[in-house]
């Protein structure tokens, strides 16, 4: 049982480049979310999904896109990377938002 | 505005020295209060969920409690392996997000 798998673990991008952060879960969870973690800022919600085909914005959605074509996968796309997007990104999933989220191990992204 | 505040930011204890971490919350309606543990370079690991004031949960040397305004994570006779950052987060009624505090970095010296 792998839980929540994120790839890649590390990435360096140049300003203006685009990329996709992958997230997959094998627990048949309906709820999936993307957070970014920055020093002194805590974890902030970027986008979330309550099921396949349904997504919505969180606190800090600008510069990011998501889609949810299957229950298992919830990729996060950076459209045109900016240095302000340098952060650690976490994907999380849950069977119900009040029962606790399972987090992936994170992707550390640096934009230069 | 929904807000979760943790204190202290950092805490250093000797092995066996018990203490408590605080998580105060100001939210429009609390559905649940989570505690997570995060080790360096890893994702948060779920510890507890508390749903109503007066509720308590325990796991090994950790006990979490909840009042109408705050939650405490009590650590009894800690060991060096308890060193980590502890995060609390609130689930808001009618919202899909977790509102996180900034965490308490706990260090247990042998």
Shape of chain B: globular
Rg of chain A? 13 Å
What is the H-and-E element order of chain A? EEEEEEEEEEE
Radius of gyration of chain B: 13 Å
Care to count the β-strands of chain B? 11
Chain-averaged pLDDT of chain A: 94
Q: Number of DSSP helices of chain A?
A: 0
The ordered H/E elements of chain B are: EEEEEEEEEEE
Q: Sheet with the most strands of chain B? A: 6 strands, mixed
Write the layout of secondary structure elements.
The complex is a heterodimer of chains A (about 110) and B (about 110).
Chain A: E1 4-7, E2 10-13, E3 19-25, E4 31-38, E5 42-51, E6 54-57, E7 64-66, E8 76-78, E9 87-94, E10 102-103, E11 107-111
Parallel strand pairs in A: 2-11
Antiparallel strand pairs in A: 1-3, 3-8, 4-5, 4-9, 5-6, 7-8, 9-10, 9-11
Chain B: E1 3-7, E2 10-14, E3 19-26, E4 30-38, E5 45-50, E6 56-59, E7 62-66, E8 70-75, E9 84-92, E10 98-100, E11 104-109
Parallel strand pairs in B: 2-11
Antiparallel strand pairs in B: 1-3, 3-8, 4-5, 4-9, 6-7, 7-8, 9-10, 9-11
Can you give a write-up of this model?
The complex is a heterodimer of chains A (112) and B (110). Chain A is mainly β and 112 residues long. In chain A, 0% of the residues lie in helices and 52% in strands. Chain A is built from no helices and 11 strands. Chain A has strands at 4-7, 10-13, 19-25, 31-38, 42-51, 54-57, 64-66, 76-78, 87-94, 102-103, 107-111. In chain A, a hairpin with a 2-residue loop joins strand 5 (42-51) and strand 6. Chain B is mostly beta strands and 110 residues long. Chain B has no helices and 11 strands. Chain B starts with a strand and ends with a strand. The mean pLDDT of chain B is 94. The A-B interface holds A 4, 31, 33, 35, 40-45, 48, 50, 56, 58-59, 90, 92, 97-106 and B 31-32, 34, 36, 41-46, 49, 51, 87, 89, 91, 96-98, 100-103.
């Amino acid at each position: 049982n792998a839980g929540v798998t994120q790839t890649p673990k590390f990435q360096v991008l140049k300003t203006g480049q685009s990329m996709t952060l992958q997230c997959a879960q094998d627990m048949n969870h309906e709820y999936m979310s993307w957070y970014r973690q920055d020093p002194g800022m805590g974890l902030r919600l970027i986008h979330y999904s309550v099921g396949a085909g349904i997504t919505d914005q969180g606190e800090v959605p600008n510069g990011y896109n998501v889609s949810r074509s299957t229950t298992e996968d919830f990729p996060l796309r950076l459209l045109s990377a900016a240095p302000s997007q340098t952060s650690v990104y976490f994907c999380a999933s849950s069977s119900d938002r009040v029962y606790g989220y399972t987090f992936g191990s994170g992707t550390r992204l640096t934009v230069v | 505005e929904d807000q979760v505040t943790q204190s202290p930011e950092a805490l250093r204890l000797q092995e066996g020295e018990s203490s408590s971490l605080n998580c105060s919350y100001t939210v429009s309606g609390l559905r649940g209060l989570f505690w997570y543990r995060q080790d360096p370079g890893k994702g948060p690991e779920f510890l507890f969920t508390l749903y109503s004031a007066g509720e308590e949960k325990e796991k090994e040397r950790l006990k979490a409690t909840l009042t109408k305004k705050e939650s405490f994570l009590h650590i009894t006779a800690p060991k060096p392996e308890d060193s980590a950052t502890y995060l609390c987060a609130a689930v808001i009624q009618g919202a899909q997000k977790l509102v996180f505090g900034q965490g308490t970095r706990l260090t247990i010296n042998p």
